[in-house]
């Protein structure tokens, strides 16, 4: 079952979410050819210091096993879906696409958000992938209101991918968020409308569609973190932390 947050907690999550949005957009604005993904990580780290918030990803371990995540930012280029580890060797090139994923802790509460952008100018196909994945996040968020179910979000997201001829990365999903980075419930990006847990005021979830132009299957790189599409197709990722309110929803990580 999802954890219900108090009005005060949602207020603090919104405060943190606003800071996260500022930091994420500052990092996105620094994306250009010649910049390394480690430069972007350093920038995110400086911004977090400036705002007095803590990184949520650094030191994180999946299921409390495996290697600790060594950076504050996830920077996933082209066929990397998520969890790309920043590196000084990874210099961005014109025409690539990059997913930027950041989580912060503000007053002991977690928010999580991601967006994908082109390095310089992307191909028409990749521009469409970015646009459709962003629109799918919006379509998922539009389903967030009391009485609707997690499956309504999942179905709305999947429908966007299907209409555009893209595939949903099925093995990676959204999640509850707030007291921890990952909480119940799971928020999948495909499924049937009217299924899964019912949305209630006070629930806070991270909705995060990941689409690819190719096949949905993924594989991990040797670093234990980076997730790539198995067929090497480009992938895009957008994410917001969203609170369910009595009136509908509030996007906590909106700029
Ligand atoms: Mg994230
Ligand atoms: Mg997330």
Describe this structure in words.
By secondary structure, the chain is α+β, with helices and mostly antiparallel strands. It has a single domain (7-251), classed as Alpha-Beta Complex (Creatine Amidinohydrolase), CATH 3.90.230.10. It has four helices and 15 strands. The chain has helices at 7-29, 37-51, 124-142, 150-164; strands at 54-55, 73-77, 80-82, 97-106, 109-118, 167-168, 174-176, 183-187, 204-207, 210-212, 218-220, 227-229, 235-237, 240-244, 249-251. The strands form four sheets. The chain has a five-stranded antiparallel sheet with strand order 8-7-9-14-15. Strands 1, 2, 4 and 5 form a four-stranded antiparallel sheet that branches. A three-stranded antiparallel sheet has the order 3-12-11, with no helix packed on it. A hairpin with a 6-residue loop joins strand 7 (174-176) and strand 8 (183-187). It starts with 6 loop residues before the first helix and ends with a strand. The relative contact order is 0.19. The model has no long low-confidence stretch (mean pLDDT 97). Bound molecules: magnesium ion (2 copies). One magnesium ion (MG) is lined by residues 101, 103, 112, 114, 239. A divalent metal cation 1 binds at residues 101, 112, 239. One of its GO terms (molecular function) is initiator methionyl aminopeptidase activity. It catalyses: Release of N-terminal amino acids, preferentially methionine, from peptides and arylamides. Monomer. A divalent metal cation 2 binds at residues 112, 175, 208, 239.
């Amino acid at each position: 079952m999802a954890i219900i947050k108090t009005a005060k907690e949602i207020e603090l999550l919104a405060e943190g979410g606003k800071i996260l949005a500022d930091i994420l957009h500052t990092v996105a604005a620094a994306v250009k050819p010649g910049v390394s993904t480690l430069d972007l990580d350093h920038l995110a780290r400086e911004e977090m210091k400036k705002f007095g918030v803590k990184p949520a990803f650094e030191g994180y371990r999946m299921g409390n096993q495996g290697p600790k995540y060594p950076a504050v930012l996830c920077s996933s280029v082209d066929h990397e879906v998520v969890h790309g580890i920043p590196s000084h060797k990874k210099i961005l090139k014109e025409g690539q696409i990059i997913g930027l994923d950041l989580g912060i802790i503000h007053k002991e509460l977690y928010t999580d958000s991601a967006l994908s952008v082109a390095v310089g100018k992307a191909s028409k196909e990749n521009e469409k992938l970015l646009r459709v994945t962003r629109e799918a996040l919006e379509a998922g968020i539009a389903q967030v209101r009391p009485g609707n179910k997690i499956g309504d979000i999942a179905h709305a997201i999947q429908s966007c991918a299907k209409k555009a001829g893209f595939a949903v990365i099925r093995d990676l999903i959204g999640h509850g968020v707030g007291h921890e980075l990952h909480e119940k419930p799971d928020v999948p990006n495909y499924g049937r409308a009217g299924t899964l847990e019912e949305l209630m005021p006070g629930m806070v979830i991270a909705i995060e569609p990941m689409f690819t132009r190719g096949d949905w299957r993924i594989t991990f790189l040797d670093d234990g973190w980076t997730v790539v599409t198995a067929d090497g197709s480009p992938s895009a990722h957008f994410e917001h932390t969203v609170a369910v309110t009595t009136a509908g929803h509030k996007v906590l990580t909106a700029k």
